């Protein structure tokens, strides 16, 4: 099962209706917690996300709204008796902050620290790209391996049924029939996660081909000067990112507390997003991973 659970959608300052950041991605057997800001532990309870489901925690950068929830979440995992290994990924330059936060947590978790400093793979099916923020920041990409989809009429014509289908899949060949004769290439699903950044190549790379893209949208187009000054995206820039990468769906989040109604930001993003579906996230939303395209 794959879905995105929104735990918080506020930037810098939380509001009555928006908690600091926090995103939980269910990805088959993995549970990835992204950027746990303050209050994430309680938001998980509201959203029905059990701490024991977390297998990885991924930080884009060490500004407080993206990591101050870490000690609480880690302590809760110890309290709940989590025995499986948990992997914590973060920019290498944020090591001091991360170690300080981890040191506050109840000891006892099988926690593995994985700093990264360059673009590329950081774990099986997970890659990072540099973002452009006021401190070092990286966005994440989660990729399902490519596979093959069987074409039933061709299988039938080849007389392959039942357990032979599985055999063909594993062996790549069954008698004269090759796997590629009766199936087509199926690109793996892709998730992109772009947090605090100005427009940059890394953000475009993460948006490219994403079935679901989460992008910060701190400012309205009308406040583009502020976005420029603080190295954040406007809604229009987030939309353009998704549109140019041909993303299936764009989830906008990380809103400045100055906007009571983020409907305007969603409309601005739609104006530049082309065929991409645009959703303005609310706290506690459960967003099913989009089904395969084409
Ligand atoms: Zn932030």
UniProtKB/TrEMBL annotation:
<keyword id="KW-0255">Endonuclease</keyword>
<feature type="domain" description="Metallo-beta-lactamase">
    <location>
        <begin position="18"/>
        <end position="106"/>
    </location>
</feature>
<comment type="function">
    <text>Zinc phosphodiesterase, which displays some tRNA 3'-processing endonuclease activity. Probably involved in tRNA maturation, by removing a 3'-trailer from precursor tRNA.</text>
</comment>
<feature type="binding site">
    <location>
        <position position="196"/>
    </location>
    <ligand>
        <name>Zn(2+) 1</name>
    </ligand>
</feature>
<keyword id="KW-0378">Hydrolase</keyword>
<protein>
    <recommendedName>
        <fullName>Ribonuclease Z</fullName>
        <ecNumber>3.1.26.11</ecNumber>
    </recommendedName>
</protein>
<feature type="binding site">
    <location>
        <position position="196"/>
    </location>
    <ligand>
        <name>Zn(2+) 2</name>
    </ligand>
</feature>
<feature type="binding site">
    <location>
        <position position="133"/>
    </location>
    <ligand>
        <name>Zn(2+) 1</name>
    </ligand>
</feature>
<dbReference type="InterPro" id="IPR036866">
    <property type="entry name" value="RibonucZ/Hydroxyglut_hydro"/>
</dbReference>
<feature type="binding site">
    <location>
        <position position="254"/>
    </location>
    <ligand>
        <name>Zn(2+) 2</name>
    </ligand>
</feature>
<feature type="binding site">
    <location>
        <position position="66"/>
    </location>
    <ligand>
        <name>Zn(2+) 2</name>
    </ligand>
</feature>
<comment type="subunit">
    <text>Homodimer.</text>
</comment>
<dbReference type="GO" id="GO:0042781">
    <property type="term" value="F:3'-tRNA processing endoribonuclease activity"/>
</dbReference>
<feature type="binding site">
    <location>
        <position position="65"/>
    </location>
    <ligand>
        <name>Zn(2+) 2</name>
    </ligand>
</feature>
<dbReference type="InterPro" id="IPR001279">
    <property type="entry name" value="Metallo-B-lactamas"/>
</dbReference>
<feature type="binding site">
    <location>
        <position position="63"/>
    </location>
    <ligand>
        <name>Zn(2+) 1</name>
    </ligand>
</feature>
<feature type="binding site">
    <location>
        <position position="61"/>
    </location>
    <ligand>
        <name>Zn(2+) 1</name>
    </ligand>
</feature>
<comment type="similarity">
    <text>Belongs to the RNase Z family.</text>
</comment>
<keyword id="KW-0819">tRNA processing</keyword>
<dbReference type="Pfam" id="PF00753">
    <property type="entry name" value="Lactamase_B"/>
</dbReference>
<dbReference type="GO" id="GO:0008270">
    <property type="term" value="F:zinc ion binding"/>
</dbReference>
<keyword id="KW-0862">Zinc</keyword>
<feature type="active site" description="Proton acceptor">
    <location>
        <position position="65"/>
    </location>
</feature>
<keyword id="KW-0479">Metal-binding</keyword>
<keyword id="KW-0540">Nuclease</keyword>
<dbReference type="InterPro" id="IPR013471">
    <property type="entry name" value="RNase_Z/BN"/>
</dbReference>
